[in-house]
Write a structure and sequence with these properties.
heterodimer, A: mainly alpha, 8 helices, globular, B: 10 residues, little secondary structure, elongated
């Protein structure tokens, strides 16, 4: 555990909580892509199957359980409790275009050809692109609520901090996981355009709206 | 330690 890992995890946790609170307090999931949230629930489920096979630490186990629990709670709020406010017409990204190639890639490129390892690889690849339905939705409507942009910023920052964590681990522990690093790099790059808008607009007190 | 040797990351 190093400072980048810890702040990365906390940033990820903050993102998840911000989104849950936003939906709960406003009693609405307007502007939120349910498809991205389903993908994140799938990501956590397939990655944290190791909860059943290996114990690392109390921190590790509780964070995994919190992430999984919050992911399903978010999906429940969007598709069940506040379904009336869900903006399905704008959430039109075709997720099969992500899930199918990512599944194929996980079978082809992995550390070890076993079910658990392929599912873990699948979750790493899927996480790197799971935000695309949400970004697509924002580009379609041309705007996002400020609280939604805080959510996206924390979520993007988390993987960027993990990149620093992997550099740290390479130098100090000789640890190198190319699958996680390359997928994490892709994931972070996808947020760059958003980071730019966040810094130039949202942090200056303006609402995030895209030019028509 | 090249490759995935741990389950410790989230």
């Amino acid at each position: 555990m190093n400072v980048f890992r810890l702040t990365g995890d906390l940033s990820h946790l903050a993102a998840i909580i911000i989104l849950l609170l936003k939906i709960w307090k406003s009693r609405s999931c307007a502007g939120i892509s349910g498809k991205s949230q389903i993908l994140f629930a799938v990501v956590f489920t397939t990655r944290y199957l190791d909860l059943l096979t290996s114990f690392i630490s109390l921190y590790n186990t509780s964070m995994k359980l919190i992430y999984i629990g919050c992911a399903y709670a978010t999906v429940y709020l969007i598709y069940m409790k506040f379904r009336a406010t869900y903006d399905g017409n704008h959430d039109s990204f075709r997720v099969e275009f992500l899930v199918v190639p990512v599944g194929g890639l996980a079978v082809l490129i992995n550390h070890n050809f076993s079910l658990m390892e392929i599912l873990w690889t699948f979750s790493i690849y899927l996480e790197s692109v799971a935000i695309l339905p949400q970004l697509f939705m924002i580009s379609k409507t041309g705007e996002a609520e400020t609280i939604t942009t805080h959510y996206l910023f924390c979520l993007g920052l988390y993987r960027a901090l993990y990149l620093l964590n992997w550099i740290w681990r390479y130098y100090f522990e000789g640890f190198l996981d190319m699958i996680a690093i390359l997928a994490g790099l892709v994931q972070t790059i996808l947020y760059c355009d958003f980071f730019y808008l966040y810094v130039t607009k949202v942090l200056k007190g303006k609402k995030l709206s895209l030019p028509a | 330690a090249i490759g995935r040797t741990r389950h410790d990351e989230l």
